[in-house]
Amino acid sequence: MSVAEASPALAVEALVAGYEPDLPIVKGIDASIGQGDFVAILGPNGAGKSTFVKAIAGLVPIHAGAVTLAGRPITGLAAHLLVRAGLAFVPQTENIFASLTIDENLKLCAGVMPAGKRSERIAAMYDLFPDLAARPTTPAGALSGGQRQMLATARALLVEPTVIILDEPSAGLSPKLVGEVFETLARVNALGVTIVLVEQNVRAALGVARTAMVLADGRIVHRGPAKGLAEDPRLGEMFLGHHAAAGETA
Ligand SMILES: Nc1ncnc2c1ncn2[C@@H]1O[C@H](COP(=O)(O)OP(=O)(O)OP(=O)(O)O)[C@@H](O)[C@H]1O
Ligand SMILES: [Mg+2]
After folding, report:
1. How far apart are CA 113 and CA 116, in angstroms?
2. Does ligand 1 come within 6 angstroms of the Cβ of 161?
3. Of 37, 55, 136, 208, which is most buried by a Cβ count within 10 Å?
4. Interval 58-102: pLDDT, tens
5. Minimal-distance CA residue to ligand 1 atom 25
6. pTM
7. What b/e readout covers 59-86, taking b as 16+ CB neighbours within 10 angstroms?
């Protein structure tokens, strides 16, 4: 077995990260995400979920620790190099070009691939997202929230990542659209892509993920199977406990 096959899809070791050198937001996280897993990252507002995934994606400075992708060190690599290494990141906002059409958005992303592969990959994305295939010439800015998330996800998947990280793709969507976006993620996962999903929408995320991690104050306070966690009374405590500890509740 090669190193890549034997290694987790994504692993972080003793990760410390934050926006200012003397102000860690991620305060020492160890996590190993298996190939093909679907992980939901949950936790109260301000827990450091976005900072954690942005640090992995090369968008927030890492102060200490290590990140590996299929056994290969990627700590602190610039975002565009991470894409080439197989790690895709879909930020919560500003993840599409609103003034360009769906097709132009996809073609722009495909530009980093060998010319011979581009049209094949764009066709594969239209197969995966029939809603986008139905209106390739529509400007992205005219799409619904759910369609925009699908376009952002398609852009990320175009270059065939092994791991895709999404930061709150359901934010601002109606329950019906949340369901559609999550069903699409389940299909992507079924194709073998490892998924890391940061979510506020706890119930919906636990309904689609296989593994759950709960963050509070920059640390992992729980990790385990997603199944059953929504009904576990400890889940509420993990969210509320943090607020009580921070003095935000009486
Ligand atoms: N660009 C930034 N510069 C400085 N501090 C930031 C920045 N973004 C976030 N923070 C701080 O980092 C901490 C964690 O924020 P983060 O956005 O990672 O939390 P989160 O768990 O994603 O919360 P939410 O559920 O609200 O999205 C907060 O105290 C926040 O104020
Ligand atoms: Mg966030």
Report:
1. 8
2. no
3. 55
4. 999 999 999 999 999 999 898 889 988 999 999 888 789 999 999
5. 45
6. 0.92
7. ebebbebebbbbeeebbebeeeebbeeb
Q: Residue 188 Cα, ligand 2 centroid: separation in angstroms?
A: 23
Q: How far is the CA of 166 from the centre of ligand 2 (A)?
A: 10
Q: Which residue is closest in CA terms to ligand 1's atom 7?
A: 19
Q: Look-up: residue for tokens 């619904």? A: 144
Token pair for 130: 């029939």
Residues in the chain predicted with pLDDT less than 50, given as ranges, are: 244-250
Exposed / middle / buried, residue 1 (Cβ in 10 Å: 0-12, 13-18, 19+): exposed
What domains can you pick out in the chain, each with its CATH number? 3-245 (3.40.50.300)
Helix axes 115-128, 145-157, angle to 10 degrees: 140
